[in-house]
Request: fold
Amino acid sequence: MAKLNIDTLNPFQRAYLECALWSSNDNSDEQGGEPLDRNYDITDIAPESLAKMLADCDAFERHNSELLGQAGDRSQNGHDFWLTRNGHGVGFWDRGYGAIGDLLSTNCKAYGSCDIYPGDDGQLYI
Reply:
């Protein structure tokens, strides 16, 4: 399968994927290793993992379109979706959106958490 053409991603999707790499480490040493975005980019995400990640983005945006329209821009919202669903201690609820941020945070729980990690083949998996 061909590598991802990043020009086909919308701002929400791109920010979500970039945040996943930025906020995750490769666990290559006892201190957690290097951030994934130091040695990988979003084109390194395995096709099946990418499909799942993009499906989650699309579903979250579709089910929360009215709320997201009252929150940050699409890039910020994609970033916050990754952080909030994975319990990073920041996200929708701390952006000053009030009840909107709280609702978006609650709605993230339906997606559960998800980890991204490097496989032996050099691709990234969730």
In short: Strands lie at 117-118, 124-125. The two ends are 18 Å apart (CA to CA). The chain is about 45% helix and 5% strand.
